[in-house]
UniProtKB/TrEMBL annotation:
GO terms for molecular function: DNA binding. It comes from the Eukaryota. PROSITE patterns: B3. This is TF-B3 domain-containing protein. GO terms for cellular component: nucleus. Residues 23-121 form the TF-B3 domain. Pfam families: B3 (PF02362). Keywords: DNA-binding, Nucleus, Transcription, Transcription regulation.
């Protein structure tokens, strides 16, 4: 949309990037666990990514944390970021409709990208809700479970996030073995 294009153009002017940026509007397949991935255009991958499958470095502007997703160069000519891409998505609350702008980092080393995030223009981001809990990887709460957990978290009033585990047979014991 024109409004999104204007925001992207303004951000690129503000950061004064001298290299070509890669802009991706997040789709469901880019952000939905358990195995989200991001396809990189062949032209951009050839110019800015490794010429074989390897880890790359992602960082957010003004932050020290780094993520090390794996870049895959497929035999079919498709180039993707996977693996710790899920950690980047979760840690930054990236959602469908958000825009990620990848800029090769100045002085950040080879295959290091600063990722700027523009939130989707939607009601969901108006007050961007961050839940007071964390779930184990590949776990999802139903709306009823989510409501129960949020009510309990509010009642406890902890300053830290809760860790929520959805219990199954392996958690409560099968033949004397317990796993959490």
């Amino acid at each position: 949309a024109d409004a999104q294009k204007e925001k992207i153009d303004k951000l690129l002017q503000d950061i004064q990037s001298r290299t070509l940026a890669f802009v991706a509007i997040m789709r469901k397949s880019n952000v939905q666990p358990p195995y989200p991935s991001l396809t990189i255009t062949k032209e951009y991958a050839v110019a800015h990514f490794p010429h074989e499958s390897a880890s790359v470095i992602l960082q957010r502007p003004g932050e020290n944390k780094r993520w090390y997703p794996r870049f895959y160069e497929g035999n079919d000519g498709i180039h993707k970021i996977r693996g710790e891409w899920l950690d980047f998505v979760c840690d930054n609350s990236v959602e469908e409709g958000d825009i990620c702008i990848f800029v090769p980092a100045k002085g950040g080393g080879r295959f290091t990208f600063t990722v700027h995030l523009l939130r989707a223009e939607s009601k969901a981001h108006a007050g961007h809700f961050v839940p007071p809990y964390m779930l184990s990887q590949m776990s999802f709460l139903s709306p009823v479970q989510q409501s129960i957990v949020e009510d309990k978290a509010e009642a406890i009033q902890l300053e830290a996030h809760l860790y929520v585990a959805i219990m199954n047979k392996t958690n409560v014991g099968v033949k004397g073995h317990y796993i959490l």
